[in-house]
Structures
1.
Amino acid sequence: MIYEVDALKQVYGGRTVLHIERLAVRDGEILALVGPSGAGKSTLLRLLNFLERPSEGVIRFCGAPQRGAVTLGVRRQVTTVFQRPVLLHDSVRNNVAYSLRLRGVKAAERVDRALAEVGLEGLARRPAQTLSGGEMQRVALARALVVEPRVLLLDEPTANLDPYNVSLIEGLIRDHNQRTGTTVVLVTHNVFQAKRLAHRTALLLNGYLVELAETPLFFTSPADARTRAFVQGEMVY
Amino acid sequence: MSTLLQGLIEAIHLIAARDEALTQIAALSLRVSALALVISTLLGVPVGAALGLTRSPFHGLITAVLYTGMGLPPVVVGLFVYLMLSRSGPLGVLSWLFTPKAMVTAEVVIAWPLVTGLTMTSVRGVDPALRLQVRSLGATRIQEAWAVLLEARIGVVAAIVAAFGSIISEVGAVMLVGGDIEGKTRVLTTAIVLSARMGDFAQGMALGIILLLLAFLANVALLRLQGRTVR
């Protein structure tokens, strides 16, 4: 297991937004977190990236409990691609090279490879801010992948994108996972995306983990009535 | 109109003749303002960035103080620095009064709030999501702060340009603390005041045109720096 989460609680201003008794993420899997807005999916992702400290509970990464200030070495094994790509006011190439630069690594061939992987090698010199939304998200993905993280966290990476770019990004995630064995935790509103990509799928509702199952089972024989209602598109929150 | 034209002609004549006194005055103007700008930038950008990056319960008070500092009347600054540097003042032992050092000090007091305040505002204007994104890519706190500062660079350079504009054209404070001593502390602005007082408007105009030209060239240089950093 790459992550083991125990009695995790996150409280903002007295309000509990996340309360997960137990969650284990397998090394090399694609785990989809589905659920309505406000379910705590993005909060969980931030905690898994060690961008926030949990109010209670513990997260084990590769078996080691991460308490207090998480070391840079651990943090750098995990990267997140957010729903809205935030790119630097710089060229596409420099944006992709940025995460390597943070680690003091100069590796032009790795940047070239990452750009080729997302199909943007022809736009390397373009200012990143002049790209379309889909291209920007591919730059963000290349910037995350170039450092070869053990875990890739994706927070609604295809929200607001057209079907062509959705399909392109899904293909990139699937190929990368198969080729490198990178663990992927994907937050999505889109249950069909979870069905297409994930090995396992989990439903979060009001901060609680309702059900976690192999994706085919999750969609065909959900154990919980709320999961059944959610995958059938009924309002459950 | 004839004075304006006469001033322009005289300015061209003075520049072409490389008048020694004028060169010395222009050089001192640039030297004093450039040094004050460097000091204000070195002290103001880090403080402005730190204020922009952190949250403090005194945020409102600090902003109000800085914004007030940005509008300080130069003559009041001059008086304050004069009193500090005068023989009976707390910094009298330095013997800086009526020297270029006193002029630099006064200009730093004028420019520092501008650089700090505008840098703080620019840093606060950077998309807050950038910090989270950069941290998630593995940035240390210092790398995170540097990334935000780089994203705010257009505003930071604008702050430096504004500060330069304010001090190169400064007259009240430098006259008070510098004394407008010929060959020692006379700069373009104080020389313009002197020319006007003596009724030599053409000479004053000529000095004014040279001052504008220097300010323009310095701003072009700063803006080219801004252009190079923003691709």
Note: Chain B has one domain: 31-197.
2.
Amino acid sequence: MSAGVDTAVNLAGIALRNPVLTASGTFGYGTEFSPFLDLRRIGGFVAKSLTLEPRIGNPPPRISEAPSAMLNAISLENVGVDVFIRTKLPAIPDGVTVIASVFETEIDRYAEVCARLAGVPRVAGLEINASCPHVKSGGIEFGQDPAVLARLVASARRATPGPLLVKLSPNVTHIAEMARVCEGEGADGVSLINAVQALEIDTSRRRPVLANGLGGLSGPAIRPIALRMVWQAAQAISIPICGIGGIGSAEDAIKFLLAGATAVQVGTANYLHPAIAGEIAEGMAEYARDHGFERLSDLVGQLEFPSR
Amino acid sequence: MSTDQWGETRRTPIRSVAEILSNADEGHSSRRLTLRVPDFPGFAPGQFAMLSAGALAAAERSDPLLPRPMAIYRSVASPQGADVEILYKVTGRGTALLAEALAGQRVSIVGPLGHAFPAPEPGDRVWIVAGGTGIASVFDLAARLKSTHRPTVLLGARTEGDLMAVEDFESLGIDLRITTDDGSRGAPGLVTQLLEESLETVASTRVFTCGPTPMMRRCAQICAAAGVPCVAALENHMACGFGVCLGCAAPLVRGGYALVCRDGPAFDAAEIDWAGLA
């Protein structure tokens, strides 16, 4: 870490040693990365989304490539909340900040998963996945309808006293409205964006490439969309934002801070280079030092947008 | 430290930036890539690596975005790590890009990854059946077993030009039999037909296979009918190679999925639901 730069940030009541987290669904349960990355080099990680019961994923093909992007339709395969608490959490090294991600198909079930995670000592906070774009009866309705989103956030808020983030879907017309709903219902912060709903077609079979049909687009191709949405949300709310979308370098991450994010999550880039999140954290500190900022948090929202 | 079935220390995978020593055209879109990989801990037969041409960081080259899983063909220890050989064919955008890389350029590598072929017991009668680019996955297995097990190796391809590494196999001095669909090299027909005609089923017979899914599926059927254990190395698409993208799911006979990267690529062929494999 660069001498003299204070990299610590507070994200929604979660104290992070630096603003770099890794995104849910791209980082397993953390220990998969231990051969490559000392997890204490990053601010923390968001674990794979948890449901009440274990879930088996979609049939293959589950992934596909697109220009500067990938599509996935995994369907939130996970071990279930109880196995996570019993076996996955204890395997994570001490000193690593863990945020649990919650996904379910009904509001009551979301709340039950939140309640089981509330007060678990190693869980620093919760992130409600309101935005999974490829489960037919799940996240897409929650994240796309302001009234449903309001009920979901209010229910989760009642279920957990700790830090509560809501991960927003990009598949909406007005992201600022969705961010305001979360703030109004007591969320401590919002994370955005999740994968962009997408379709790739195999012309030889005249069928979708993915067995699920639709998938979620991630990677560098979505980064400018994510930056725009983070900036729009930042104009609308005063709770902190965690920026996500195609981050693969320290410069990319700095852009999200400038747009108004307090912290960031690295996603698809973890697949390309399993230590990239650590390098990004160190590179951000270098940027701050080189540009005369004493604290990384001083960069948040410093974008000078042309007045209209 | 635990040891694997090949009698060596279990290797922790590394992520490294490797220098290309050579990237030679071997004809018929087949290429041999030699990389100097710092700190490479070696590998066991059947393990693979994820390779990104040009992608030192995600920002440097983002299209094509994902690294490509490649069987490790051979590795020779050097003072700094190892010189690692990869045999590949240009089959799409990722391998086309890799084919353009020159000696002296660098590539990102993550490996060794996955579960190797299980080592046969002393005295086992070993058959190795491979087709297409799967031939690259079994060379090291044949090389390591050449003195202890005298394996019989059956290689198949559509044409002579689609075969790989035949001279390397010939240099092992083992029983090598070749088929091509068009008869341009070796016996005409499918390698699985040759297996069915020639497989000697004694109690200790074991079959190892890697190749196109229809070939491995047929190989698994032949072995099941003969009561012979068969280990198949699967070659699914994947984004990470170490168990987090969950993209390489292979359906199992008992239900659910295994991850080719984490639970394989070498599997007991009887456990795979071949009809459901994409």
Note: The CA atoms of residues 73 and 215 of chain A lie 5 Å apart.
3.
Amino acid sequence: MTTGRLSYELPAEGLRREFALLALGDLTIKFGGLAALENVNMAVYDMDIVGLIGPNGAGKTTAFNIISGVYRPTTGQVLFQGRDITAMRPHHITRLGIARTFQNIRLFRKMSVLDNVRVAYHHHNRAGLLSSIVRAGIFRSQERDITERAMQFLRLFDLDARSRDEAGSLPYGQQRRLEIARALATEPRLLLLDEPAAGMNSAETEQLMELISWVRDQFHLTVLLIEHDMRFVMGVCKSITVLDHGRVIASGTPDDVRSNPAVIEAYLGEAK
Amino acid sequence: MEALFSRLSNDFVLICVYLVLALSLNLINGYAGLFSLGHAGFWAVGAYCGSAFIIYSHQAGPGIPGALLFCGGITAAMGGAALVGLIVGLPSLRLQGDYLAIASLGFSLIVVNILNNLAVVGGASSFPFGGLVWPDGALYDLKARVAHNLTHIVLGVLAVGTCTLVIRNIRHSSHGRAILSLREDEVASAMCGVNVVKYKLLVFVLGAAFAGLAGVLYATYTTRIAPEAFNFMESVKILLMVVLGGLGSLSGTFIAVIVLYEVPELLRMSHVTIAGSPVADWWVMLYALVLVMLMILRPQGLLGSKELFECAGIRRLFGMAGRGGREA
């Protein structure tokens, strides 16, 4: 119980929580009696790139699902910018500034590349249903704005040439990029990336590392990512939290984590 | 001459009724990807709400002009159907999965049963307009009948036009893209900030309201409605029109409605017999066969989710250059 929670059990805990962009407090979620996460505490600070790692089944994606509102935790709470978002519905959380991508890419495959990004802009749309039906002036100016900004995102990600193609027809690497572009179009403060380098070769992974650092600086956002590729995690993350069997077993800088015996044990099995 | 006019106008008005039904179901089923099996139920609610409003208002104040009664009837029909849509949709649309199919199927069966036992609207026998025809006059009178048919042709065109325009304009807007994204991936669209439950309800209620419009048009045209006209098979028929034309294709729906309405009518008229029974009886079998073939050869329907003018062949025919305009 003691190893993983060191930094958060200090007296200054409350203070740190207040300044954290995202704070998970004693998060527990049980599925039919089985705890997928147990008393998870974690804090993510502004402009950080934080890695969430751990063996398969450690509860990483479950943590993402709780943060983004897909699951509701059994106990504990999620604070975002000091605000309790634990019981909020997903679209509401997105509007507050948390966006995510998925482990297995979830694009709107039959919609165009442009429309994928434009859907993410929908919550900025100020043209009501009625003005859209009668094609009022506000509808036209809003459509122009939305399309323009969506195209900007596509240009940033070098996808503008394929804006009219079906998203499902893109090659794998471009689909990953489009998913990130779509997440960014919701204008988040915090970006959750679930295994962004999955299925990529080392050259593509290299590019992705640059892209993520660039995105962070360009959009002034904070990134929390799940990844199995250790070279990727160690290269891009400033701090790392390690989950195993639903508990935080270590957190700290990449070097701390790398040399932590509990982490080595979790990955390689008990040393005899 | 009279017979031909009567037949053509009858077909025209009923095709308009089915068009409004199929277009609105396409909004629910094709665009939002919600599987509703109870569209005839909303049609019935609209028909009975509209009729009840017109008949009882007429009884209360015989001096009220027909046009006003009809407008009130439309409001009552669309409002009633939308309200019922809200009541059916609210519990079932909050859940993911096919609960809506079951809830809407149950709903359409319940509606027919209630109407069969509801004496104020005629019960199992028909709910006639008691000689009330709009515009005023009796149906036995040829002139009144021509006027009646012509009026309903105009009303039918207006209803189909409004329905098409509203659905098309919603589709090509930010709201429409949000609705389409629901069909693709509900979780992902919530992560993009789309209020999933709100848009599902919106689509369902709007679709129900248009089914109500079709109901009142059907009721004032036939001037005599009975519960069995809105049975479950009608829901299936409307669904088949949508699926045949292509989920998400409005022009496909137009083609499918006209084909699926006219082919059995023409067969009925032809008086040809095959193996001793009229060809119209064989149609039911043929119908099933066509559907099975369709599902094997072209599961996305005739036009898929494209519109007619987006298909390559049609574009070439009209000399339009470039790829299909699918971006909006």
Note: Chain A touches chain B through 43 residues (CB under 8 Å).
